[in-house]
Each structure stands twice: as structure tokens, then as C-alpha cells.
Design goal:
The structure is a single chain. The chain has about 400 residues and is an alpha/beta fold. The protein folds into two domains: about 140 residues, Aspartate Aminotransferase, domain 1 (Alpha-Beta Complex), CATH 3.90.1150.10; about 230 residues, Aspartate Aminotransferase, domain 2. It is built from 14 helices and 15 strands. Strands 1-9-8-5-4-2-3-14 form an eight-stranded mixed beta sheet, sandwiched between helices. A three-stranded antiparallel beta sheet has the order 12-13-15. A hairpin with a 2-residue loop joins strand 10 and strand 11. Helix 4 runs parallel beside helix 10 and helix 11 runs parallel beside helix 14. The two termini are about 35 Å apart. The chain binds pyridoxal-5'-phosphate. Pyridoxal-5'-phosphate (PLP) binds next to helix 5 and helix 6.
């Protein structure tokens, strides 16, 4: 705690977007002990630390199984492949998300069909997802963007009777709940990312799939490890997408602090809402799905002007995400499909993420709120009437 405060003081008043050094300073001793333990065990790939982390994260996420893999992107594509999704299949994905949600679909040879998101939350619009269902649809990917779970009941209501899978992209939602149940237990299977800045982040890359499906978990364990059923016995064409023992050992340390860190994020979110003028457009938060605030997005018609003013006040910001998924030049002809997605386009054009991490101080949040108010009062940042 003292080390964290000293580090913060050294930063010279900048309000940072993320501050992993502060977080790691709090658990430095535990991280070093985990490293020492790993050195002693020599279990560098899979092994005891991975198995222990998997058991702990499965329990945390209210799931029967957790299978650790090398990244969130690998978690998504292995989850799809383990369900046999591939060429000729379509997966419905929200048009407003990190591109990896849709890339994973393309990586297994299937087609991402992008649907619109809700104006208020930026999350998949169940009515739009339902309208996108066709004869080739195999699954719906519910992306719990920004830390808030999607409207899962509405997705299951149309997916269940049609025999469609409901899969979670929970990369931004470790510990998020929906009617009290945690992300990771809200669909047939869920993919997590442990990219360092996530609510639960490794000190490098990592990911996992959580599921109650025994057969799926067994297949995932083979797919991530070159298709091996037992040592030297390769029964399918798998990949090297294992979670490192070192990352698992470090993740175990951080998992023990996840609730405390999520609670800090939630307190920061509440303070932002209290301080910011109600005219500033923030994510709508539903009572049944309290956000764990992986990010804290606001929307401004002229976000570049707002970002400039915040920068002048020493405040870092981010954009998540622009353009909408189909707007990236990576896609070739027919590799992605979409209809009209006006809400996704608007989110992509207007979203500006304010600083959000567990170690923000109330003073810093106050500074951000003041700077936002100063920004929307400046003519260049003001758009139309009183809209922000
Ligand atoms: C919504 C979403 N899906 C997937 C990913 C991919 O995870 P990774 O970077 O670990 O591959 C991320 C994060 O990076 C993400 O935010």
C-alpha cells in the first residue's frame, strides 16, 4: 500500500488510464513467492500451477470446468472449434466489440454475422441477434463489453428453442454477475482473456474457457495441447495454445484480490456517476447486471476535442473501439456479414473511455470530472444544444 502511494506520488499528477505498476506493487511479495514456487516445481507448461488455477477460477466463475489457454483469442477460437463450428457455419457477433470476438469466428473458417448493439449499454441487442439468425447459424456470441453482462435471458429465449449455442466472450467481465450468477456460467461456454490490463490480468498473455460441459472441457484440453489425449498419443489435429505455468501461478495470486479490485472499480464508477453532469452520456447499467467496470466509457459527439482538453489537464483516455468490427481493412470479401448497425456505428464514432483502474483516487476522479465539464463547455467540444 505504501509502495503504491509512493509510486503514485512519483507520477507527478498525471491521471493514468491504467496503472498496473501500482496494482503489482500491492502484491509484489506474493508474486515473487509464486515465481519462486514455480522455479522449484519446474512446471512451466501446464502442470500443478495451471491445474490449481483452473480449479480456483472454475469455482470463482461458478463453472464446473476451466481450461487454461494462451490468450483470450485462443480461448474464443478453441471454444468454437471444440463445438465443431467451422466452414459453412455462421456465428452472430455484436458489431461493436474488440475485433478478436469476430476474428476467432473467421479463424475457425466460419462467418461472423454482425448484429447491432443496444443504444444504452453498447451490448448485443437480443432483437437484432434474433433477426440475424439464419439456417446456417450455429451460435450467438454474447460479449460482456466494458464489464457488464449481456441480457442473457433474452438471448436464451430465442436460442434455446432453435438449438443454437449461446457462448460468452467474457474477456472484459471477470467476476461480473447477471441475476447473481457469474460470467463464465451464463451460457454453454465462456472465453476469458487474461491480457495484463484486464480485471484479472496475467503478466503476459493468457486465457481460459469455462464450461459445465464435460465433453467440451475434455476436447479443449486436447486441442490446446497438440491434440494429445495422453503423452505422445495424438488423437486430433490440435494446437500449441497452452497456458504457461508461470502465468497461472501469478494469476492465482491476483485472483485472490479480484473481488476487492472489482469493488474498487465499482466505487470509482459510482463516484464518476455522482460527479458527472447527467447530460454526459454514460453506459446504462442494469440492476440485474452490475458492471465490474473493466472500462468506463462516455460518449461525446466530438470526442477528439474532449480527449484533447483532458490531455491538457494531464488525463489519459482511450477509445474502445473504432471503427465498428466490419470497418477494419483486415476483412476480405464475404469474410464478414452485417446489415444496418446504426447503434454500433454511433458507439464506434463517439466512445471515449475515462481512466478506470482499482488504484484511482477520489481526487483523480474529481479531476477527471472537472476536466470533462471544462471540455464540454469549450465551443469545439460542444455539439448541438446541450448534448455531450
Ligand atoms: C472483448 C474481447 N474479446 C477478446 C479479447 C482477446 O483477448 P486476448 O487479447 O487475450 O487475445 C479481448 C481482449 O483483448 C477483448 O476485450
Amino acid at each position: 500500500m505504501e509502495a503504491a502511494a509512493a509510486l503514485a506520488a512519483r507520477r507527478g499528477g498525471k491521471v493514468r488510464f491504467v496503472a498496473l505498476d501500482l496494482q503489482h506493487a500491492r502484491v509484489e511479495r506474493e508474486l515473487k513467492e509464486a515465481f519462486a514456487r514455480l522455479l522449484e516445481s519446474s512446471a512451466y507448461t501446464l502442470g500443478i500451477e495451471v491445474e490449481s488455477f483452473e480449479a480456483e477460477f472454475a469455482e470463482y466463475s461458478h463453472a464446473r470446468h476451466c481450461v487454461g489457454v494462451a490468450s483470450g483469442t485462443a480461448a474464443l477460437s478453441l471454444m468454437l472449434e471444440a463445438y465443431g463450428i467451422g466452414a459453412g457455419d455462421e456465428v452472430i457477433v455484436p458489431a461493436h466489440t474488440f475485433i478478436a470476438s469476430a476474428l476467432a469466428v473467421a479463424h475457425v473458417g466460419a462467418t461472423p454475422v454482425l448484429c447491432d448493439v443496444l443504444e444504452g449499454t453498447g451490448l448485443i441487442d437480443p432483437a437484432a441477434a434474433r433477426a440475424a439468425v439464419g439456417p446456417r447459424t450455429a451460435a450467438i456470441l454474447a460479449v460482456h463489453l466494458y464489464g457488464q453482462a449481456c441480457d442473457m435471458d433474452a438471448l436464451h429465449a430465442f436460442a434455446g428453442p432453435r438449438g443454437l449455442l449461446v457462448l460468452e466472450d467474457a474477456a472484459q467481465a471477470h467476476g461480473a454477475t447477471y441475476h447473481g450468477r457469474r460470467a463464465g456460467s451464463l451460457g454453454n461456454a465462456a472465453a476469458f482473456s487474461f491480457y495484463p490490463s484486464k480485471n484479472l490480468g496475467a503478466l503476459g498473455d493468457g486465457g481460459a474457457i469455462c464450461t459445465d460441459d464435460d465433453m467440451l472441457a475434455a476436447r479443449l484440453r486436447r486441442l490446446r495441447n497438440l491434440g494429445q489425449r495422453a503423452k505422445g498419443e495424438h488423437v486430433e489435429l490440435g494446437y500449441n495454445e497452452r497456458l504457461d505455468g508461470l502465468q497461472a501461478a501469478l494469476l492465482r495470486v491476483k485472483l485472490a484480490h479480484l473481488d476487492e479490485w472489482n469493488e474498487a472499480r465499482q466505487a470509482h464508477g459510482a463516484l464518476y456517476r455522482q460527479l458527472l453532469d447527467p447530460a454526459i452520456r454514460l453506459v446504462e447499467e442494469r440492476p440485474e447486471s452490475p458492471s465490474v467496470h473493466h472500462l468506463f466509457p462516455a460518449r461525446f459527439e466530438d470526442r477528439a476535442a474532449v480527449a484533447t482538453v483532458l490531455k491538457e489537464h494531464g488525463i489519459e483516455t482511450g477509445i474502445h473501439y473504432t471503427p465498428a468490427v466490419h470497418g477494419h481493412p483486415a476483412w476480405g470479401q464475404d469474410q464478414v456479414r452485417h446489415g444496418e448497425v446504426p447503434n454500433a456505428e454511433a458507439w464506434a464514432a463517439e466512445e471515449l473511455s475515462l481512466p478506470m483502474h482499482p488504484d484511482l483516487s477520489p481526487d483523480e476522479i474529481e479531476r477527471v470530472a472537472d476536466a470533462v465539464h471544462a471540455a464540454v463547455r469549450t465551443p469545439s467540444a460542444r455539439s448541438g444544444e446541450a448534448r455531450c
